């Protein structure tokens, strides 16, 4: 019996140990805007330093989608997730002695967090890709000013590591945070020493984040509380709504185009590689078949939209406009009834955010002999 008890205790300890390890680790977000990948290269070194002691974990996220192929698979951060971390390392290119437009745009959305004191007491550190180096101190200071308004604990790099860097070439060291002189092509950038300083900054920041873990209140914004109860990605599973693979363009165009916060999408009734219920209503197909094709078309639209927002449909703020084009005879007048299928599906998935302006009309033909084409405009984060 004693042996059995010992075995039971050992098994219990083996199960509990990983959970305890997770609870004692600091969870740190490395939040970046990167144009040409220079900031991302520093971010990887920062993350490596954070995780080097095994007392903290790091995740790199972008503030907005990037067209750079190096950054395509990096997840996009949401403003409301920031309070869930034990510390945040912010990275940005230098724009005219200031933080980048992309980072500034993201920080401008944190008003709700500021109002709710959601980031007060949380440690923060900064790093930048500084081009020629001109204005880097101004830019770092601007970063600090923005984060100080939130009451974050600002962790500097000090003069750590500067004694061992190669002083024969320009380096991006700064007491406020590491930078890289990205536009100087005398050597590969970031240099070995700039990478080393970034790794050292990450290590130091992890120690501070771990020390402060649990000392500040995690206050969610009102928007975050609402979002947690309306996870659209979970809703799709709950309702058994399966999105198809994103249809590939058949010509010289893209599945979607994003302009500012608007995403523009056009789709037809493609399903499993072929057009579902093709032809003209009243000649080749009936109304029920066109409604089925309309649903398939709208699912294609949402699949493309999901791709446009980095696989997170919670980033959709509003369905702005849906336009339905139906392949009908000249005397047909019930286009709105057909389009209700797409509208109902959109509202079912997105709720109030799915309610939209709408237009419907008939056409003598639709591309690839589809019975329907849908044009959609969405506003996203």
UniProtKB/TrEMBL annotation:
Q: Which CDD domains match?
A: YjgF_YER057c_UK114_like_1 (cd02199)
Q: Which UniProt keywords are listed?
A: Signal
Which N-terminal stretch is annotated as signal sequence?
Answer: 1-21
Where the record annotates domain Flavodoxin-like, the positions are 28-205
Query: Which is a Pfam family this sequence falls into?
Result: FMN_red
Annotated protein name in UniProt: Atu1372/SO_1960 family protein
């Amino acid at each position: 019996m004693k042996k059995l008890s010992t075995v039971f205790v050992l098994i219990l300890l083996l199960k509990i140990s990983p959970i305890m390890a997770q609870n004692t680790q600091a969870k740190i977000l490395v939040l970046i805007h990167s144009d040409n990948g220079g900031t991302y290269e520093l971010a990887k070194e920062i993350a490596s330093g954070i995780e080097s002691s095994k007392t903290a974990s790091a995740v790199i996220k972008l503030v907005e989608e990037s067209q750079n192929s190096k950054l395509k698979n990096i997840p996009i951060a949401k403003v409301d997730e920031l309070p869930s971390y034990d510390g945040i390392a912010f990275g940005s290119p230098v724009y005219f002695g200031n933080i980048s437009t992309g980072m500034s745009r993201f920080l401008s959305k944190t008003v709700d967090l500021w109002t709710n004191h959601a980031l007060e007491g949380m440690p923060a550190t900064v790093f930048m890709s500084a081009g020629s180096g001109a204005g880097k101190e101004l830019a770092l200071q601007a970063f600090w000013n923005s984060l100080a308004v939130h009451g974050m604990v600002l962790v500097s790099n000090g003069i750590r590591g500067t004694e061992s860097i190669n002083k024969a070439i320009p380096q991006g060291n700064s007491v406020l945070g590491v930078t890289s002189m990205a536009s100087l092509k005398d050597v590969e950038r970031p240099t070995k020493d700039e990478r080393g300083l970034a790794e050292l900054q990450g290590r130091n920041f992890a120690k501070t984040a771990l020390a402060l873990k649990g000392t500040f209140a995690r206050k969610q914004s009102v928007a975050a509380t609402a979002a947690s109860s309306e996870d659209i990605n979970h809703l799709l599973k709950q309702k058994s709504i399966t999105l198809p693979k994103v249809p590939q363009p058949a010509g010289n165009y893209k599945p979607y185009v994003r302009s500012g916060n608007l995403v523009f999408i056009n789709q037809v009734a493609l399903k499993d590689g072929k057009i579902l219920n093709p032809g003209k209503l009243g000649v080749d197909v009936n109304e029920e078949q066109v409604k089925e094709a309309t649903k398939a078309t709208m699912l294609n639209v949402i699949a493309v939209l999901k791709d446009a927002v980095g696989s997170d449909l919670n980033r959709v703020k509003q369905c702005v406009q849906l336009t339905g084009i139906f392949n009908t005879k000249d005397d047909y007048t019930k286009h709105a009834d057909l389009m209700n299928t797409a509208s109902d599906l959109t509202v079912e998935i997105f709720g109030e955010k799915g309610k939209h302006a709408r237009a419907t009309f008939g056409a003598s033909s639709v591309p690839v002999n589809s019975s329907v084409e849908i044009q959609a405009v969405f506003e996203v984060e």
